[in-house]
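By convention, each integer encodes one residue's backbone shape. The lines below illustrate.
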Amino acid sequence: MRRRGGAAALLAMLTTSACTGGSGDAPAPAPPASAQPSPSPAGSAASLTAVQAAERDALAAYRGMWEDWVAIAATGDYQDPRLARHVSGEALSLIYKAVYANQRDGLVARGAPTYAGSVTAAEPAANPDRITIVDCSDGSNWLNYRADGQLEDNDPGGRHAVQALALKTSDTWKIDVLVIQELGTC
């Protein structure tokens, strides 16, 4: 069986596996947060509300997850501990398994997916420790290559709806649940 591009192969694996999170349930789609204040023009930490700071930090963990995933997938080193900086729980397990599967098959991913998550829910409202993030990630430019440098497959992948649950534990935000839907879902 041929494997599709980097994001497509990894995302396909996660799509079939990421139906449950640490609590046993995937985060349900949430309506947009009723009050999503934007950061102040000055952007200083002192001027941010608790909700703004939580959203900022959860989105930073989300971006960090993707950056680390791309770096690790490029080497195939599924034992690289850097992903744990931004990911925990089921999401961590799923991403490591996806990178391991590529490493086992002699593949590495080159390029990068696009991602631009946005917050749709923050709970509890006054001082959030759970943030739901949605995105439409495009893996068209994140492709798998064999050890000889040849492209594994010419299927460029595409766009996948993504939902992530960021949790705050001990003042650290990490992506704990990651649901990546099928190709063409956004």
In short: The two ends are 26 Å apart (CA to CA). The longest helix spans residues 50-75. The domain at 6-25+49-183 is CATH 3.10.450.240 (Nuclear Transport Factor 2; Chain: A,). The chain has three helices and six strands.
